[in-house]
Amino acid sequence: MVTTVTNTEPRRRNRRGEGGKLREEIIEAAVALLDEGGDERAVTLRSVARKVGIAAPSIYPHFSDQPSIMLAVVQREMDSLTSVLREADENAAPDARARLFAVCNAYLDFARQHPQRYRIMFGGLWTPSTEDTSITDADLDSLGVAAFTLLVEVLGACVEEGIAHGSDDLFGDSVALWLGLHGLAHQRAVVRKMPGPDDVGDRLITALAHLK
Amino acid sequence: MVTTVTNTEPRRRNRRGEGGKLREEIIEAAVALLDEGGDERAVTLRSVARKVGIAAPSIYPHFSDQPSIMLAVVQREMDSLTSVLREADENAAPDARARLFAVCNAYLDFARQHPQRYRIMFGGLWTPSTEDTSITDADLDSLGVAAFTLLVEVLGACVEEGIAHGSDDLFGDSVALWLGLHGLAHQRAVVRKMPGPDDVGDRLITALAHLK
DNA sequence: CTCGTGAACTTACGGGCGTTAGCTTATGTC
DNA sequence: GACATAAGCTAACGCCCGTAAGTTCACGAG
């Protein structure tokens, strides 16, 4: 079922000074196109415009080119992911082990609930080699730092509480833990059905965090 | 540098009965386009034809559509990966620990040497939702089974030799190990530079195989 | 030598894309 | 009520894509 609504009716123009609203609508439309299940090829400048109900060139005052729409989407979703993780951390029981599992499972849940978003967030193909686009390396490097920092913090708490055999390299251990989570999250996002037991997630966490 | 050779000169026609040769040439051209560093969007039916030096419609006798070229590429590369792993296994010292590290590192090396290939092999976006294409679910499910089986075998050897705390679920443990490897391999294939220590790979293997 | 046929070609259609240039119209101030 | 301007529109450009239809040409069997 391809829902190409086309949206006739020329759209109620935004009030003076509220032109910026359109920027948000554009990002949301791009996310919606992703969620609808097609791959990221479905997110073109024109398809986004159609979804919002505006003419294609009306995007240019808000985004310099198509890749920068994608960058905005990824940045927004990274922020969203960070919020989800923080919330999970705060709602968890105050002991380090519970916090670690809460955060890691929240991560996995996010990926499961929004596979398409997860794919472009970490799939790395939305940047056509960083030539010809307005995207800088700094833009890319800063992605996901906040979320990762939270993971480091929670794993660090486990070491401090003595429930994990911390090596002398907390950062490296955190990277390894994240890579495991990412492997599972990505694979789930990509294939229809994952083989393996249901508790793979917990096994990964336990093994990679070196929980006692 | 975009090498669009265009290749005038109408190509030496294949001998009778050797039409199948072209099929291989098409797959190799597609792989070459990938390796040249563009993303998979660079692999279009027409660009492949240009690379081979044939007219675009000449592909149809060999592949029913563009996605099936991609499927053939992935199948070929999966076979190639399996060979690489088997070779690494056979050339390793005969003890289980050495075999495990040899196979896992060979996996990681493959991904590092051919990041673009790895991306489409496991990136899962080359199938436009399996509608409108000639690709079946069986095609997809059978991918990579041979390579994974080898991993199960090698990890099993570790448990048998008593150098790994095997749980009662060898298959599940193997999935977890593979997911860790995949997370690292994929991330390396996707970003310019991976943060974290150089020995993340070994850490992942040690932790996920539960080596003593 | 003929001639069927497999292998690949030429031409062409219709469609989607990103982007540029210039126009229209609602808004809210004076 | 006039009018400056922000907000968005229409039209059009050139490009590349996938695919259909019909054509040419060399191989090799008879």
TrEMBL record, chains A, B:
Transmembrane domains' residue ranges: none
Residue ranges the UniProt entry marks as DNA-binding: 44-63
GO MF annotation list: DNA-binding transcription factor activity; transcription cis-regulatory region binding
UniProtKB keywords: DNA-binding, Transcription, Transcription regulation
Cell inner membrane as UniProt keyword: no
InterPro entries: Homeodomain-like_sf (IPR009057), HTH-type_TetR-like_transc_reg (IPR050109), HTH_TetR (IPR001647), MT1864/Rv1816-like_C (IPR025996), Tet_transcr_reg_TetR-rel_C_sf (IPR036271)
Chain ranges of the HTH tetR-type domain: 20-81
Domain of life: Bacteria
Protein name, UniProt field: Transcriptional regulator, TetR family
Species assigned in the record: Lentzea albida
